[in-house]
Design brief:
By secondary structure, the protein is an alpha/beta fold. It contains seven helices and twelve strands.
Length: 225
């Protein structure tokens, strides 16, 4: 494991390129978002995603939020995207709002939820119920390091960088050394700015339903609900 300091405002392109190469090879990179530090892997690499679950000690029935850098990526990950989603994206992205959609078939099962099961809110994750209909949670973080890394490496499956049940880290110093020793690279950009988990909004139902109220509150979302 190597910890590299990186500017939150002007990320070093060489550092980002190195981190992206690790991701593309199936490695794991700890990186900052505006909410908490995430543990990132290539969202399309099932083996890499499985490493996240193993390291965190997380049950595989709990899928991961997919972090993207371009709004248009929604249509690669999701199907039947409702019109309200476009309005929410214009208003709140990039930012701490996670949107849940019906999923396309391209992603590994470990990042997909089952629509309408018991809801299990957890740091950067959720699940739902309804037979074999699958869902995907997507967000676009408001952090220059995160966005630069995603642009270079592609969509990242990324829960918070902590062992399951622990408090999500807002600084690298909050992260367990035992966890850090099991990742390939850590990008340290100092403290996160929002320090509250993203709000998770389910758009597979009408009206949309808040699964977890976080940095964006119900009042802010009221007109969309």
């Amino acid at each position: 494991m190597k910890i590299v300091k990186i500017s939150a405002q002007r990320p070093d392109s060489k550092v980002i390129a190195h981190a992206a190469e690790i991701i593309r090879r199936g490695g794991l990179v700890v990186f900052p978002t505006e909410t908490v530090y995430g543990l990132g892997a290539d969202a399309f690499n099932a083996r890499a995603v499985r490493k996240i679950f193993k390291i965190k000690g997380r049950p595989e029935k709990k899928p991961l939020i997919v972090h993207i850098s371009k709004k248009s990526t929604i249509d690669i990950l999701a199907r039947d995207v409702p019109s309200v989603a476009r309005a929410l994206v214009r208003k709140f992205w990039s930012g701490p709002l996670t949107l849940v959609f019906h999923a396309q078939k391209a992603l590994p099962d470990l990042v997909l939820g089952k629509l309408n099961s018991s809801i299990v809110p957890s740091m950067e994750l959720f699940i739902q119920p309804k037979g074999r209909v699958k869902t995907v949670a997507v967000r676009m973080p408001a952090h220059k390091v995160a966005l630069a890394l995603i642009r270079a490496a592609g969509p990242l499956a990324a829960p918070s960088a902590n062992f399951s049940g622990e408090k999500p880290p807002t600084r690298v110093s909050d992260i367990s050394r035992a966890l850090l020793r099991r990742v390939d690279l850590v990008l340290d950009a100092g403290s996160t700015s929002v320090r509250v988990p993203s709000t998770v909004l389910d758009l597979t139902v009408s009206p949309p339903k808040i699964l977890r109220e976080g940095a964006i509150n119900k009042k802010q979302l009221k007109k969309f609900l």
